[in-house]
Amino acid sequence: xxxxxxxxxxxxxxxxxxxxxxxxxxxxxxxxxxxxxxxxxxxxxxxxxxxxxxxxxxxxxxxxxxxxxxxxxxxxxxxxxxxxxxxxxxxxxxxxxxxxxxxxxxxxx
Length: 109
Prior knowledge:
Layout: H1 4-22, E1 29-34, H2 37-41, H3 44-57, E2 63-68, E3 80-83, E4 90-92, H4 97-108
Parallel strand pairs: 1-2
Antiparallel strand pairs: 1-3, 3-4
């Protein structure tokens, strides 16, 4: 049985991890991970979690990281779409955990 303080600590940690998923304003960079059936079966969940963790580790706070449906490139899953404000989207394909970390590094630089 956990104490009320332990439960509050767990909630605060979870809220901090989810902060990147909820950020949104005009200067926010959007990171969308295709999580259709094809994406999930190709490892998109691991990709999504790697992006989320890396963004949290690097304290990047101007990101909105979300799951979206199929992005239409089923044969190249996992697919990540990166949208900088006022620019055309960038599409990354076959994004594994290592490539996900590279994407976050690109955003940070």
